[in-house]
Amino acid sequence: MRGMFLIIEKDLRKIRRYKFFITMRYTWFIIQVLVFGLAISKIVALKDFYRYYLVGVYSSILFLMSIYTGYDIISEAEYGLFDYYLSLPIPRKEFIMGKIIGSGMSSLIYTTPMLITILSLIGVNSLVNLILALFSALLFSLGISGLIISITMMVKSGDISDILFGAISTLLVRLSTVYYPIAIMPDYYKIFASINPLSHAAELLRFLLIGEYYSFPPEITITLLIGLAIGMSSIASIIIEKVIEGGVWR
Amino acid sequence: MSIRILIERDLNRFWKYKWWVTGIIVTNLSDLLIMSLIFSNIVRKEFVPEYLKFTAPGVTMMALFISAFSIGREAAQEIRRRYHHYLLTLPYNDWELALGKILAGMIRGIIYALPFLLLTFIIVGIPSPIGLLVILGVVAVTSLSMSSYGIALSALVEKIDIYVTVRSLSYYLIFFFSTIFYPEDALKHLTQINAAYSIVLEISRVNPISIAAEIIRNTVGIAQAAQSNIPLFIILNLIITVLGITVYIRALRKK
Q: Which end of chain A is more exposed for a tag (fewer CB within 10 A), N or C?
């Protein structure tokens, strides 16, 4: 297990290097929350829409940060760092799990200033719920990191991954319950929103942070998030293990 | 040599970024056909009766901005890599170089925005022939000034991280401090609640993308459009274009 913790620690240490990136993301988030969010809330008829929006926009930034870990994997692979990792006395399984957990935890830490901001606006109703919300957020980011790492390792191209991540994030954010509940979507979009993990993360976080759910009950969302985290981590570990030997990139 | 060659060169380069273009098409289309369409079911009718129709001109102008502004990214690379010294050895004077680059950006913006404009007409209806001419004029003028703005920014900021920061800040200001996604009335309501939001309202009134969207809305008869300030639109775009050319030429002349 020591090898896994070392990989996690290394990934977490990298966060300090991204101060500029996090500041930029945070500025974007603040403008979204204080300008776009408030202005759109004025024209939306949904009751308490601003609180709905705040948790949604936090879920979307957590999702985007989890996707960002894919870029980190790409740069490590392009710089040949993966081949270096393979030479370390760390079992493959530990390395892979360390990478997935490290990426998931990094995403959660990157988004901490955003979470504090939305909590200061909506308030904290219970400490237990807050801890559960953090745990749910971690499950979600583990699942997304697993998915993104799998895609990166299969595609093996920085450019194509970049486009795929862009298209995936654009479509998944809009075809989810981040900004609007499923009930108001046209039928042809509902099916995508129902199977979209981002919808379930946003709904579970809403239930835990504001005490209401709008689209899916919490027992379904938590089951799906646990399934996503376990399923995607397992798939990622199988894919990485298959791809990693004999020169990881190209 | 004609500046047509310079324009052609920059235009050809645009098509090489086919993945980038695909990415922004997906973003702009999903803003319109997913987000605006779904929001139209929950937006209060007293503010905007038909939200999809309201946002279509705004999203079109947003698409135009992204595309015209993209020329700045390449100008920034050229300046950082001192490639512009090579350009200066060509048989062009610096004014021709600046004009070629800005016109290339303008044409990129127009080419990219035209399909979105057609989509807007499908959604909101076809304007009168005079209205169509006004809209095409607005598209051309906005594209020219936004291309110029992108290039000026690249010349002003040499360090890549600062350039990316300023560019992102421009995006935030243009998209959110605007009337692309919400009518001016919503911003006025916010100002009544908190006076600090008058900054957002005032910026949206001088935001060329906002004004352009409002002119298109007025031309196609969208009732919630704010009053179009055409003289301000022309003056603002003229100032941005002239400033952009001047700043870029100064950067070219720098040793």
A: C
Q: Chain A residues within 8 A (CB-CB) of chain B?
A: 20, 24, 27-28, 31-32, 35-36, 38-40, 42-46, 49, 159-160, 162-163, 166-167, 170-171, 174-175, 179-180, 184-186, 189
Q: Name the closest residue on chain A to residue B204, using Cα atoms.
A: A35
Q: What are phi and psi of B40, to 5 degrees?
A: -60, -20
This model of the complex carries an ipTM of 0.82
User: Which residues of B are less than 8 Å from A22 in CB distance?
Assistant: none
B104 DSSP 8-state letter: H
Number of helical H runs and strand E runs in chain A: 12, 0
Span A43-98, pLDDT tens digits: 898 888 999 999 999 999 999 888 887 777 777 777 778 778 878 888 888 888 88
What long-range pairs does A163-166 form, CB within 8 A, spacing at least 24?
A163/B19, A163/B22, A163/B23, A165/A67, A165/A70, A165/A71, A166/B23, A166/B26, A166/B27
Q: Give the residue from A62, A45, A56, A33 showing the smallest Cα distance to A214.
A: A56
